Amino acid sequence: MLPRQSHRRRGGRGSGGHAAAIRGNLSGAPTPPQPHTVSDSRAAHTVALAHGSRPPRLRHPVTMVHRSALGALGALLLCSLAAALPTIVVQQDCVSDRDCLFSMTCADNKCVCRDGYHLYKDKCLGGIEATCNYDEDCIVDAYCHNHQKCACMENLLRSDDGSKCTGNVTAMGRLTDSNCHENFDCEQYGMAFCESKTNMCQCRVDAHLRGGRCWESRKLGEGCLSTDQCYTPRFAENVECDKTNHTCVCVLGSRISPDFLDCEFVDTSTATTSLSHLMALVASYILAKIVSS
């Protein structure tokens, strides 16, 4: 009798529903499912906190909205905002720098090119060492190195003020007399594309110009089928495709540079000059010791 009395005391007034469920199970009758309401979730959450256990996660009605619908709505909103933004050009009215592009500044209520950027067709293009995100942000014959700074194409040198890149344009991969409007017009030159700034065919970044055609650039030690594919930044004439191993190697009379990227000329006088310089230092040291003694 004592266990039954103890059970009654623990149940209290709130145990009626639980006891009824037990009686129903003992009698074999199925227990009807109870509807789950928000108040039930909050009650379970409160009880769990009171006993120090982990509470169940409360579900907010907003989670019922499908996430893909939110994503589509966000994309539509961004597209609408982008379409509504006006095109900002040089000499456009402004009140502060916020009204201009990052390459411009507001001076006398007009957007003008800031220092380091130069006017080109109503735009301000970054000079050498100017901040950039894409190649289109830089001046002609330059590219955006690592999406950070404008730099001249290979084999071209920057001018004193950094406003242009000078040198042999054919060396950096521009094909003369090759007007184009789209990349399709440049397929006859191999790995070339149509440069939008000049409307001329130009070799891709991973290609180089040789013999009026753009070849895929293969570095020292890489596989090759023709010497035209082998390329080094400074001395391209010192590299060839080995016919036996089919790899790019330095030609006879040159050696690999310390950075393993180029083939340098072998200067036979370098060793003799260095030895003579060392002997002169030793002789000066011995002479100084004799004088001091």
Automatic annotation (TrEMBL):
Keyword Transmembrane attributed: yes
InterPro entries from the UniProt entry: EB_dom
Region feature (Disordered): 1-42
Pfam family, one: EB
Keywords: Membrane, Transmembrane, Transmembrane helix
TM stretches of this protein: 69-90
Basic residues compositional bias, start-end: 1-12
Domain EB: 86-124
Protein name according to UniProt: EB domain-containing protein
Species lineage: Eukaryota, Metazoa, Ecdysozoa, Arthropoda, Hexapoda
